[in-house]
Design goal:
Elements (H helix, E strand, L loop, with lengths): L2 E4 L3 H7 L4 E4 H9 L2 E7 L7 E3 L2 E3 L1 H11 L4 E7 L2 H10 L4 E3 L5 H7 L1 E3 L4 E10 L7 E5 L13 E5 L2 H9 L5 E5 H7 L7 E13 L2 E3 L4 H13 L2 H11 L1 H5 L1 H8 L5 E3 L6 E3 L8
Parallel strand pairs: 3-6, 3-7, 10-11, 10-12
Antiparallel strand pairs: 1-2, 4-5, 7-14, 8-14, 9-12, 9-13, 15-16
Helix pairs in contact: 3-9
Length: about 280
């Protein structure tokens, strides 16, 4: 098959040393005709997709924005609150891609979606309040309820996103929770004094996108080729974009996790204090 080496943006090549991916002439012409990609987002799925200062942000936003830059296209993001809301939005609007949830085979079949190739695998994590060993109520992020064994728990509550799941555990509505490790880390940064996070060995969540079946398969093929071309270095950089607030509070997080090993200045009094009584506002 005739083809050419279609290089993604020069900026990306310079930054990461990527030489491009192999696309057919037909696919290259297809890219050149593209203008705007319409993306439906289920909100509060940080660090993958969320709103920062009223604008779309997160790892997948960075991935899609850079994907569109390669053919001078743009990405328009529409937000909804949960998977059920997304179903209604899909009926009303003409969206190319859906992001921000765990795409089960059942959900995709019901809503005319096709999962993209894998962007990354994320470990699952459990989290609970310090000193709480109860196993009565477990909070689980929607889409992960069948990924773990919940037989030891009397009640399992399904939450639409990690943020709500973390809040339920922090406020005592649930004794423990389960979610994507990256998301759990993101939403527990300011509750780290109270919650213990532990990776669940051997359990992962697949991070991917879903393409509307109304879109032709040429689009899915090109998107998958782009996702496949991403190096681990690039994925790490994109994930870092989504975790930007964690870098801002990294000292606070370290201090709360290791109070015996950290000494910090109390900026309000000018005194140096052990972080067990740290007054830093970061």
């Amino acid at each position: 098959m005739d083809g050419k080496n279609y290089e993604w943006s020069k900026k990306r090549k310079k930054q990461f040393g990527i030489t491009g991916i192999f696309l057919s002439e037909k696919q290259v012409k297809y890219l050149e005709r593209m203008d705007t990609i319409e993306v439906l987002c289920v909100d509060d799925d940080a660090p993958y997709i969320y709103q920062r200062d009223g604008k779309a942000a997160g790892m997948i936003v960075s991935v899609l924005d850079h994907f569109a830059e390669n053919f001078d296209g743009t990405v328009h993001y529409t937000f909804c609150s949960n998977a059920k809301d997304a179903e209604q939005k899909l009926k009303e609007g003409n969206f190319d891609i859906v992001i921000g949830m765990s795409f089960t085979s059942k959900y995709c079949a019901k809503n005319g979606l096709i999962r993209s190739d894998l962007l990354m695998e994320a470990e699952l994590a459990s989290f609970y309040r310090r000193g709480d060993g109860n196993k009565d109520v477990l909070a689980v992020v929607e889409g992960l309820e069948n990924a773990i064994d919940t037989s030891e728990w009397r009640t399992v509550i399904i939450f639409s996103n990690t943020e709500k799941c973390v809040k339920a555990v922090a406020e005592g509505v649930a004794d423990a929770g389960v979610g994507d490790h990256n998301s759990v880390e993101y939403y527990t940064y300011d509750t780290s004094n109270n919650l213990i996070i532990s990776t669940i060995s051997g359990h992962t969540s697949s991070i991917c996108l879903a393409v509307n079946k109304k879109r032709d398969m040429e689009f899915l093929g090109i998107l998958n080729a782009y996702l496949y071309s991403l190096s681990d270095t690039e994925k790490t950089a994109y994930l870092s974009d989504g975790n930007i607030h964690l870098r801002k509070i990294s000292l606070k997080y370290f201090a709360s996790q290791y109070p015996g090993e950290t000494t910090a200045a109390d900026f309000r009094t000018g005194h140096r204090t052990g972080c067990g009584s740290c007054q830093l506002q970061i």
